[in-house]
Design goal:
About 60% of the residues lie in helices and about 10% in strands. About 5% of the residues have low confidence. The chain contains ten helices and six strands, in the order E-H-E-E-H-E-H-H-H-H-H-H-H-E-E-H. The protein has two domains: about 80 residues, Alpha-Beta Plaits (2-Layer Sandwich), CATH 3.30.70; about 160 residues, no CATH class. The chain is elongated. By secondary structure, it is α+β, with helices and mostly antiparallel strands. The longest helix is centred in the last third of the chain and has 24 residues. The strands form two sheets. The chain has a four-stranded antiparallel β-sheet, covered by helices on one side. It has a two-stranded antiparallel sheet with strand order 5-6.
Length: about 250
């Protein structure tokens, strides 16, 4: 069942992600979708949850006030029908562009010698991946931490991990640039990305409509199989590099 509510006090994307995270943590809530500009929240529930229970989830943040919406649901449906849905290419264009730049950079690095070096390609790709993705996350650390805590198995329990994770990515990226302790760095990459993909798989398989935090809060990318592919590539590369060095 779906219900619409009005939420006031949200002034930025970090506020939006914070409220989404708090409401999503209530047992019985399947999905929370909030429109920041209008303050409308569309909440999908397994069973009826009282407005009081929803308000209680926000009690530690009194600036966020939730109330029942008086708007007719049909009006919202009509409004959504008027807005054309984005194509797959338009939705993931930012992510594809970032990947494109990293691939081109990796090809240049791998072809710098007489023969194409596939190991150099993977090392440069992993360096570019971590540095680029950490950059977008650091543009809005609070927004990323809020988004990440909605699905990552570690960030759900330890919120601090959402603030630390971008710096871990940056450290890994710089380590791959200078080829520092490659075996250890690839082992750390394998562990970090394997843990990260668990929450992604759970969200995608449960068909939860939440925002992917891979590019921070700068771009509104939905969680999908694209995120699984992205993490799987890094896991596969780290495993390949580890076996090469053993």
């Amino acid at each position: 069942m779906n219900h619409t509510y009005k939420i006031t006090g949200m002034t930025c994307s970090s506020c939006q992600q914070k409220v989404q995270g708090l409401l999503s943590g209530i047992p019985g809530i399947k999905n929370v979708s909030i429109d920041l500009s209008s303050g409308k929240a569309e909440i999908e529930m397994d069973k009826h949850i009282s407005t009081t229970a929803l308000q209680a989830a926000l009690k530690d943040y009194p600036k966020y006030q939730l109330s029942e919406s008086l708007e007719i649901p049909a009006a919202k449906v009509y409004s959504e029908m008027e807005e054309p849905a984005k194509s797959w290419l338009a939705t993931y264009r930012p992510l594809l562009l970032v990947f494109g730049y990293i691939v081109v950079l990796s090809l240049i690095g791998a072809g710098a010698t007489t023969h194409f070096n596939v190991w150099a390609f993977m090392r440069v790709f992993m360096a570019g991946f971590f540095i680029a993705f950490s950059f977008f996350k650091m543009l809005d650390l609070n927004g990323f931490a809020d988004s990440y805590s909605m699905y990552d198995i570690v960030a759900k329990k330890i919120r601090l991990w959402g603030y630390v994770y971008p710096f871990v990515e940056l450290a890994l990226g710089l380590s791959f640039v200078i080829n520092f302790q490659p075996l250890i760095m690839n082992e750390i990459t394998l562990v970090v990305m394997s843990v990260s993909i668990i929450g992604v798989l759970q969200s995608v398989f449960n068909k939860r409509k939440i925002k992917c935090a891979c590019l921070g809060s700068v771009f509104n990318l939905p969680m999908s199989t694209v995120t699984i592919i992205e993490d799987s590539i890094m896991i596969a590369m780290s495993i390949t590099m580890i076996f090469k060095m053993l």
